[in-house]
Write a structure and sequence with these properties.
heterodimer, A: mainly alpha, two-stranded antiparallel sheet, two-stranded antiparallel ribbon, 8% strand, flat, B: 193 residues, mainly alpha, globular
Chain lengths: 178, 193
């Protein structure tokens, strides 16, 4: 009994020590700024920036291969935060700040094909095969991918209606200089 | 020398781990959709299998048998295999980040690849020596890699073929695996023992 316990404990401790040493020698130096920029991005891996996900996008941002404005769901706020983090200038050009939008399913046209469900990167669309789908507005980040795959064009992007709960002052337009 | 060559051929083809012994079917179905990742998975498993076969022999001969605690065999082997896999994961992450990304979740899953434990246990059962154990592990891993790459190639072609919809995807994969297994039964004619 004692031999069994002792030998297994010793074995475990030995292997643990070897792995600990190996972890020290084989450590991969990640770029800490990349991780910080990735944390600023929405993290929904929607791919609208043209990169496979938020991590490759963050890597490209740090290398200076992509403009800080690359993230459509993040909008102006994310672009400015990234520019500040990386110390680069950001130009929005004539680009107006987009109104907040949300996907909307026209229930008369929805055939319940579930194609939009599979496309949604935030799982904001509820539905099942041959059931009418609907959008959970709080989760939708308006990437518009569902509207592209819909075979009956029943999904449209609508501006979030200004109600007492959603209306807020327009943000002051600030030019960010380098 | 001839004996060792026969051992490798015997484990890789005649007693193939996947198609004859039916071990390691999880990565066989899971990582066989692309040839690239199949090659990566195969080489990672080859490394782990060979190393763990050697480690299992050492544990068996120097720890388990002298102390008379053979009943702890499975537990000890799993411990050693888990450590080897962890080490492989760190090494691959350091040396080839691309391979690390493409293998994804399947790398830690080598721990639960029953071929690895199966080979270690079969070695202990048959009382192979150190070198023979290593060759047994290496030959099994070669067979595993061969099958994985072959099957991935077949599935890449099948993905483009026009198949009746009830058969498309996984069902056709299973049917193909069955036919491959039948074909490998032909190698039993090669067996010397």
């Amino acid at each position: 009994m004692l031999i069994a316990i002792g030998s297994l404990t010793l074995l475990g401790a030995l292997l643990g020590a070897v792995l600990g040493v190996a972890a020290r020698y084989l450590r991969v130096e990640g770029n800490p700024i990349e991780a910080e920029v990735e944390a600023l991005l929405p993290g929904s891996q929607c791919g609208q920036c043209g990169f496979a996900g938020c991590k490759p996008a963050a890597a490209a941002l740090v290398k200076g291969e992509a403009p800080p404005t690359l993230c459509p769901p993040g909008g102006r706020a994310v672009a400015m935060a990234i520019a500040e983090k990386l110390g680069v200038s950001v130009s929005f050009g004539d680009q107006e700040e987009l109104e907040p939008e949300v996907a909307f399913v026209n229930e008369d046209l929805c055939i319940g094909c579930t194609r939009c469900l599979k496309e949604c990167s935030t799982d904001a669309i509820v539905g099942a095969a041959k059931q009418i789908h609907t959008v959970i507005a709080e989760v939708c980040h308006a990437c518009g991918k569902c509207a592209k795959v819909c075979p009956t064009d029943c999904i449209e992007m609508r501006a979030v209606p200004a109600t007492l709960a959603t209306w807020h002052w327009k943000k002051p337009r600030v030019k960010v200089a380098s | 020398m001839q004996e060792y060559v026969l051992l490798i051929i015997g484990t890789a083809l005649v007693n193939n781990v996947v198609l004859v012994k039916f071990l390691g079917l999880c990565p066989f179905m899971g990582v066989s959709s692309k040839v690239d990742s199949a090659v990566g998975m195969g080489s990672a498993t080859t490394f782990v299998l060979t190393l763990s076969a050697v480690m299992a022999w050492m544990l068996e001969t120097w720890v388990l048998q002298p102390l008379g605690i053979g009943y702890l065999r499975i537990l000890t082997f799993i411990l050693a295999i888990a450590a080897v896999v962890q080490f492989t994961e760190m090494a691959i992450r350091k040396m080839s980040p691309m391979l690390y990304q493409s293998l994804g979740i399947f790398l830690p899953l080598i721990t639960t690849n029953c071929a690895v434990l199966g080979v270690a246990l079969l070695n202990a059962q048959s009382g192979n020596g150190l070198f023979a154990s290593m060759l047994y592990g290496f030959g099994s891993a070669l067979g595993f890699t061969l099958i994985l790459v072959m099957f991935a190639g077949l599935r890449e072609r099948l993905a483009l073929a026009e198949v009746p919809s009830p058969f498309a995807g996984a069902p056709l994969g299973f049917v193909t695996a069955g036919i491959l297994s039948l074909a490998f039964m032909g190698f039993s004619g090669l067996s010397v023992k």
